[in-house]
Automatic annotation (TrEMBL):
<dbReference type="InterPro" id="IPR050103">
    <property type="entry name" value="Class-III_PLP-dep_AT"/>
</dbReference>
<feature type="binding site">
    <location>
        <position position="140"/>
    </location>
    <ligand>
        <name>pyridoxal 5'-phosphate</name>
    </ligand>
</feature>
<keyword id="KW-0963">Cytoplasm</keyword>
<feature type="binding site">
    <location>
        <position position="282"/>
    </location>
    <ligand>
        <name>N(2)-acetyl-L-ornithine</name>
    </ligand>
</feature>
<keyword id="KW-0808">Transferase</keyword>
<feature type="binding site">
    <location>
        <position position="143"/>
    </location>
    <ligand>
        <name>N(2)-acetyl-L-ornithine</name>
    </ligand>
</feature>
<comment type="similarity">
    <text>Belongs to the class-III pyridoxal-phosphate-dependent aminotransferase family. ArgD subfamily.</text>
</comment>
<dbReference type="InterPro" id="IPR015421">
    <property type="entry name" value="PyrdxlP-dep_Trfase_major"/>
</dbReference>
<dbReference type="InterPro" id="IPR015422">
    <property type="entry name" value="PyrdxlP-dep_Trfase_small"/>
</dbReference>
<keyword id="KW-0032">Aminotransferase</keyword>
<dbReference type="InterPro" id="IPR005814">
    <property type="entry name" value="Aminotrans_3"/>
</dbReference>
<protein>
    <recommendedName>
        <fullName>Acetylornithine aminotransferase</fullName>
        <ecNumber>2.6.1.11</ecNumber>
    </recommendedName>
</protein>
<dbReference type="InterPro" id="IPR004636">
    <property type="entry name" value="AcOrn/SuccOrn_fam"/>
</dbReference>
<feature type="binding site">
    <location>
        <position position="283"/>
    </location>
    <ligand>
        <name>pyridoxal 5'-phosphate</name>
    </ligand>
</feature>
<dbReference type="GO" id="GO:0030170">
    <property type="term" value="F:pyridoxal phosphate binding"/>
</dbReference>
<dbReference type="InterPro" id="IPR015424">
    <property type="entry name" value="PyrdxlP-dep_Trfase"/>
</dbReference>
<dbReference type="InterPro" id="IPR049704">
    <property type="entry name" value="Aminotrans_3_PPA_site"/>
</dbReference>
Amino acid sequence: MSEAMPVSRALFDEVMVPNYNPSAFIPVKGKGSRVWDQDDREYVDFAGGIAVNCLGHCHPAMVDALTEQGNKIWHLANVMTNEPALRLAKKLTQATFAERVYFANSGAEANEAALKLARRWALEEHGVEKQQIIAFQKGFHGRTFFTVTVGGQAAYSDGFGPKPGAIEHVEYNDLSSLEAVISDQTCAVMIEPLQGEGGVVPGEKEFLAGVRNLCDKHNALLIFDEVQTGFGRTGTLYAYEQSGVTPDILTSAKALGGGFPIGAMLTTSAIAAHLKPGTHGSTYGGNPLACAVSEAVMDVVNTPEVLNGVKQREQMFREKLQAINAKYDVFSEVRGQGLLLGAALNDKFKGKSREFLLASAEHGLMVLIAGADVVRFTPSLVIPQEDIEEGLQRFEKAVAQVVASHG
């Protein structure tokens, strides 16, 4: 019955809330780093569901884990615990600085939990005055009202009434900007080690170390939002491992489930102790299906073969993008880390990133943008070399088309 109804892109405009503007084609099937639409047209996927599909589409390990768990138990809620959640939490604590894990369903929910925990920790350890949260301009931490206010893009949080208070924003990669605002009243600093939505901007090592030092000086918690950078995306399980900085709280989602919705907040036992029973929760958080899939993803991703392969694939992308740029002169730089890369448009093409996205789709390639000036690539961490080559050949055609249209 479910397949009998004709479905077209026009149906979206008829039945869906208009907060999205999806592409004209509807993907119906995926395998590895290739996707097919309703007309059986094939695309190379460099978007990865916005850094989510870290093992591509329908990876056998994920399909097997979901099928096996789907035949056991789907949902219990947190009046009970379950084996997949406990196994996954153990693997996460073994692989990171963290000692305790809280499961949610998304990056926004993981960040919401992190912020609530930071406020509760500050209240109980230091008193009611210690409540300020500092984050960074152009940062992105989710769409709940708390997380979108902490995110440094007012356009996303304006227009919904009074915002949560005691939140300040400072300049990314500018330590003096943070130094001017942080004080003993600061309970937490939330930061992406590499800003994703804000333009694929890496945090400089000295800057991140300076943020850690200022947090220590003022007894504030350092929260790393690794929703986009985590789970192998930068070539280590989490990006903090390459920064020389260890956070107090880390959030994870996107690639954590490889396409199945799951989020996690990781922290130490001492900090976690402040979320006592009843202080926070989630009906679906720690769902057996999600955790079983995530455990399978982790078993594949957290291996030298995959993590080292991310760095090799990054070099392929950089070399081929530089070759395209040498020919067409559209980018000022290619920046990022691992397979979270941003091609920043030069002055001639400023504000035109969406044109490159649309032209890419015309040539059978799925890419992303990060603002109006950056074309973003977040493919599968195990994307085959031939798919990288084919995808970048298609991208070159798209670049040529955009350049010709502005000739």
